[in-house]
């Protein structure tokens, strides 16, 4: 999600996208992590303030920190409330998805520009939302955001290995594109990562299999496969090697068909009279 959010923000800052900015609904990481990563990717402070807004659902998701801070302030008489950054807004009631949606849209409407302002939304963890909300309510939240006329795109992350398959399928139905990451190296016997194997961990830390399913308007689904390589702060995609293609082709069953007709079959075919043929004799 860090790399994807940084790429969307960079395109918005450079004017290469319809969206004027990106609203990040942060559940799994603090806003500082996103801002620091985007700075290392080359976004200057002016671009961050202009094109990035973060709704902080990580620091105080249900408002307990604010209550403790208020009690301490009353006891000490000092102002202990820290000021929010310009592009960070703390959200303290993640159970209220209606309010969460309104706050997200309000942040997007704050981007500067002429005419109709479009913006993108990134929800960094549906898995975290499922701790406090139902699948139906989250699906409604995402559907309402998708149908908003100012939102150009919305993308979200879910850790499918933490949930039952039916949960992942429910959110896939809402998506026009589904991207999944799988370990680059797995045990050939058990088809999973070997726990404690350092070489496997190092390999999978910097490389993964990237599968993409793209739904087209005619109902067909296009499947793409690439290798993903993490190189410092950058991500590089490499098309699947010809070797893997040859291997996959060799795994297909070899079926042979005899398309030649015998003499008797050719004779029977020649004597067939089709109903639409003119049978009159001249």
From TrEMBL:
GO MF annotation list: tRNA binding
UniProt keyword terms in alphabetical order: Cytoplasm, Nucleus, tRNA processing
Pathway: tRNA modification; 5-methoxycarbonylmethyl-2-thiouridine-tRNA biosynthesis
Pfam families, per database record: Elong_Iki1 (PF10483)
Protein's cellular compartments: Cytoplasm; Nucleus
The name this protein goes by in its record: Elongator complex protein 5
Family of this protein: Belongs to the ELP5 family.
GO BP annotation list: tRNA wobble uridine modification
Example of a GO cellular component annotation carried by this entry: elongator holoenzyme complex
Primary localization class, coarse: cytoplasm
Alphabetized InterPro entries for the sequence: Elp5
PANTHER family found in the cross-reference section: ELONGATOR COMPLEX PROTEIN 5
């Amino acid at each position: 999600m860090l790399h994807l959010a940084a790429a969307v923000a960079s395109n918005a800052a450079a004017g290469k996208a319809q969206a004027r900015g990106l609203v990040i609904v942060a559940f799994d990481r603090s806003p500082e992590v996103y801002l620091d990563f985007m700075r290392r990717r080359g976004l200057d402070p002016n671009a961050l303030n202009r094109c990035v807004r973060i709704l902080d659902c990580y620091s105080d998701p249900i408002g307990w920190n604010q209550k403790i801070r208020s009690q301490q302030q009353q006891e000490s008489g000092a102002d202990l409330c820290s000021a929010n950054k310009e592009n960070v807004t703390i959200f303290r009631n993640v159970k209220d998805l209606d309010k969460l949606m309104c706050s997200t849209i309000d942040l997007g409407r704050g981007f500067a520009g002429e005419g109709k302002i479009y913006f993108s939304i990134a929800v960094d963890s549906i898995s975290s939302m499922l701790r406090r909300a139902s699948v139906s309510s989250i699906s409604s939240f995402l559907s309402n955001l998708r149908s908003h006329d100012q939102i150009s795109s919305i993308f979200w992350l879910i850790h499918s290995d933490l949930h039952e398959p039916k949960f992942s399928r429910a959110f896939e139905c809402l998506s026009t594109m589904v991207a999944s990451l799988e370990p680059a190296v797995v045990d050939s016997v058990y088809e999973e990562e070997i726990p404690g194997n350092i070489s496997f961990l190092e390999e999978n830390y910097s490389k993964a299999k990237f599968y993409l399913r793209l739904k087209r308007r005619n109902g067909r689904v296009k499947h793409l496969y690439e290798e993903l390589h993490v190189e410092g702060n950058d991500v590089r995609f490499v098309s699947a090697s010809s070797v893997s293609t040859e291997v996959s082709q060799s795994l297909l069953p070899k079926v042979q068909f005899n398309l030649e007709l015998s003499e008797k079959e050719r004779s029977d075919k020649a004597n067939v009279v089709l109903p639409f043929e003119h049978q009159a004799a001249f």
